[in-house]
Amino acid sequence: MKLVFSKSNLLKSVSIVMKAVPSRTTMPILECILIDASTNEIKFTSNDMELGIETIAEGTVLEKGVIALDAKIFSEIVRRLPDNDVTIETDSNLVATITCEKAKFNIPGKSGEDFAYLPMVERNDCITLSQFTLKEIIRQTIFSIAANENNKLMTGELFEIKNNILKVVSLDGHRIAIRKIELAGNYPDRKVVVPGKTLNEISKILSGEVDDQVSIFFSENHIIFEFDQTVVVSRLIDGEYFRIDQMLSSDYETKVKINKKEFLNCIDRATLLVKEGDKKPIIINIEDGIMGLRIDSAMGSMKEDIDIEKSGKDIMIGFNPKFLIDALKVIDDEEVSIYLVNPKAPCFIKDDNENYIYLILPVNINTSR
Amino acid sequence: MKLVFSKSNLLKSVSIVMKAVPSRTTMPILECILIDASTNEIKFTSNDMELGIETIAEGTVLEKGVIALDAKIFSEIVRRLPDNDVTIETDSNLVATITCEKAKFNIPGKSGEDFAYLPMVERNDCITLSQFTLKEIIRQTIFSIAANENNKLMTGELFEIKNNILKVVSLDGHRIAIRKIELAGNYPDRKVVVPGKTLNEISKILSGEVDDQVSIFFSENHIIFEFDQTVVVSRLIDGEYFRIDQMLSSDYETKVKINKKEFLNCIDRATLLVKEGDKKPIIINIEDGIMGLRIDSAMGSMKEDIDIEKSGKDIMIGFNPKFLIDALKVIDDEEVSIYLVNPKAPCFIKDDNENYIYLILPVNINTSR
């Protein structure tokens, strides 16, 4: 095999497939990037058996062939090469020689035979949206998936298509994040749970440009993202997702309009009095025109008032400040509306059209003091 | 006590004194910043008993007083306050109230009585140089002090003044870094060993501007840096520093002139084949007009040729690549000269005037292969 790339093209393709290289695995071949130039096209593949990425690298095939190279070493070499043409050549002993200007690296390769190629997946349903939108919708929801695997479904996000609206939902038992996007076109209804890891990795590869498109295909067990020269295939999470509709309610006793940035900065200041892992709530006291925030901890106490627009009852309620911060950070509106019922019921931060809904459970506080 | 600051002035002063707050200590009072407004001047002090910093904060004294506040919490609070006037007020129970706009923090303080004020040091000899120069000279030598405390003297740097030249030396048993600066003015000869930690911290506070001055005072056991509104006092390291003159020699068998950037990039590429902690040398083969670099490891091998100007004998010699990288990184010259004797003798990277000298011991290699 003998291939020539520009360094920048090579680095781009390697960086993309690196996202599906597992850091630990019992199958050493999966720690490799497969370079397949058995045709006139150069295809890079990586696969951790749950997530797989395939990308077409721009380069010239001088001699066809296939080789699997240790992903970490190979990517490090490429990263540090001078900005010039890079030649990759293999010999009969599967040693790869990587040459760029006067630098010459030799690294041992593996035959591609044992490599786990991506599963062949039937491509039927497909939706198309901009890379910007997909990247945004992931960023705006991914923080409220559960970190631990006790409930597998909570580690993923629901992607639901209904009436040509894509609804993305994540929840961890303490909060729910919901984002809705209207799709351009007619699509059959669909409901799948996509692993959080897949979404995290794909959002790192997406260009984030409004003008770049991404197509999403659904099959029985897989979701496929196709964009630019790249295909990402991921297993879906099995099982019926939580019925969230019954947790959402449009009844409320108190409605607050507040400047988002002021609210966020204030909570951010308050959290410095909370040690990592400590579960001190921030106490919010809502009265006419004023929201008082208060936190008390072993380190000290903090109090701050923020001007608000309020309708309905006064209320005092406690929250885990992190949950408020996470939600407020991904809302672009200058002003947000908060809906509350009582100190034990969840609060909702949502816009009028419910394009976003953030539900947060309160923390029990001793309101008598 | 009642003081008013602008947030930016307060943050600046707090950030400066934070550099001498110990992260762990058996004396909790040392984890505090002392705010002393017993006169009309506001002085912030921190002290870890080896290094102490005192800075005058710009602010208004509405009511005189003294208090010690937990440095970490206090600095975190200041950092996150809105950009406006900040008031610090203490009550008779030593509780400090920090107010800015509508935010109000209460944190417990301590009486200043137990605080270890900076030692009173007699100020005799003093040299003056630009903050830029001092910051540079530290950066250019600090990497070759020893990390472990087996030999206390190796954890510091020699500051030697002789014939109005300041010579700064660091060494760790494998290499020596020397920088010389001509001083403007007449100064008595002096020789002290300054703790590396002091130099690291002070270089973070120095502005790095050519037009800003710093005065350095020497006493029996201390060194004092005075600049802007700040005084840094540090203990010196006791003992006679190593006699380095006998390790330096101007004899050589081979002299090489090489482009610094090419050389540095090449070694940097080679090191990716060396695992952290692994002691693989880079092998340098010097012939007429060409320097060949080679590294072999379990991960693979690398070879690269660089054009050089050479005079004297051919030589093959091995080095710890990190030592070469460290020295080359802090040399500003486009082209560097390397002087070699034989594969077992140290090499010197130095300029013609010996304003800098980097001595590096070679690694034994099997030159027969």
UniProtKB/TrEMBL annotation, chains A, B:
GO terms for molecular function: 3'-5' exonuclease activity; DNA binding; DNA-directed DNA polymerase activity. Keywords: Cytoplasm, DNA replication, DNA-binding, DNA-directed DNA polymerase, Nucleotidyltransferase, Transferase. GO terms for cellular component: cytoplasm; DNA polymerase III complex. InterPro entries: DNA_clamp_sf, DNA_polIII_beta, DNA_polIII_beta_C, DNA_polIII_beta_cen, DNA_polIII_beta_N. GO terms for biological process: DNA strand elongation involved in DNA replication. It holds the Pfam family DNA_pol3_beta_3. The keyword Magnesium does not apply. Residues 248-363 form the DNA polymerase III beta sliding clamp C-terminal domain. Residues 1-118 form the DNA polymerase III beta sliding clamp N-terminal domain. SUPFAM superfamilies: DNA clamp. PANTHER family: BETA SLIDING CLAMP, DNA POLYMERASE III SUBUNIT BETA. This is Beta sliding clamp. Confers DNA tethering and processivity to DNA polymerases and other proteins. Acts as a clamp, forming a ring around DNA (a reaction catalyzed by the clamp-loading complex) which diffuses in an ATP-independent manner freely and bidirectionally along dsDNA. Initially characterized for its ability to contact the catalytic subunit of DNA polymerase III (Pol III), a complex, multichain enzyme responsible for most of the replicative synthesis in bacteria; Pol III exhibits 3'-5' exonuclease proofreading activity. Its main location: cytoplasm. It comes from the Bacteria. Belongs to the beta sliding clamp family. Residues 129-241 form the DNA polymerase III beta sliding clamp central domain. It is found in: Cytoplasm. Forms a ring-shaped head-to-tail homodimer around DNA.
